[in-house]
Amino acid sequence: KKKHRSEMPIDVITTTEGVDFTKFIVLQSNDHPTPMQFKVSREAAKMSGLIKDMLEDQEGDAIIPVPNVTGRTLKLVLSYMEHHHNNRAQPIEKPLKGKIEDVIDSWDKEFLFTDLVKNHDEKQHETLIDVIMAANFLNVKDLLDLTCACVASMIKGKTPEQIRALFNIENDFTPEEEEKIKEENRWCEES
């Protein structure tokens, strides 16, 4: 039986006293003035290429600061890692042919559209972007693939104007530059 998302709490701890560092590590978020500390199994933590490399170079108690990631975001990344370290996600086909929700399991679907994209409303994607940045920094390949495929699914079929509106991207092209780019790339619309 697959575990439901909420059955896998990520341990936020206030002290590292009593942590069995043979089985666990502690990751510290960048929250100021008090970083959040998370107790994570060594096995799950190794889904992060960055942490895996650090653990190979480190003896003894592993308390690792994660300078680029807030506690709220780190908790989401860790819940993904705890769920998938013994249960790897199926690779997502590239390029994505349909909608992301049609090619992922129910846990990932709930994770994406409940936690990362609030209420399945693609305009509420700030957390998704934060998790992409954290997954990239920590080098959690499967999570990066999942979240980037979600963004690909969100922009699929949209015009450049709709994409700019969705992600609050300023159009810094002059009308002349934009026309030139459209002209140079007309061939890809014809196929």
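^ that was protein a. below is b, sequence first then the tokens
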Amino acid sequence: MFFRDRQDGIRFDAVIFATGYGTNLDYLAPECGLQREVLPRPLYKYLINPAHPTMAVFTQCSEIAPFLMAEYQARYFTATLTGQIKLPAAGELASAAWTTWNERGEEVPTKYRYNMNLAQFQYYKGLAEELGLSPPPHHLDALCDLYGFVAGGRRCRPTVYRRAEYEFDETSKGYVQVKGEN
């Protein structure tokens, strides 16, 4: 794989692309170091396998804007591979990953441990800050507001909320509805 700013490129053993709503990582060998039932764990920053930090499992979180999650995670992981971001030592990676996993408590079922909802925007800001993206792109605060607003429409008016369309307004620095109803 070659990047715009590197002449030598990076060699990978494999790049696996997958789509779909269900996560099934049964094809991974137990030696990969991840527990694979329901959700892969532990994952540092919801992304990197602490046992093999050149291995990432993308977009495992739920209640997210998936393309935005994929973009930020891809940028972050690429930065770790190219040396732009230095990861902590293996033990610290694992400790941080398990801390994140356990934050929600044992009472939260496994399949909901990576739910993000509005917290995803703080996650993106954290990744953007580590990447040196200042200010973070995508007008994240405005997008967070829109995400919360649309979620309300989804709960209250599930038959019509999808018809609404929004555009970013430079003047107000927020999203405005341009079509449909919410």
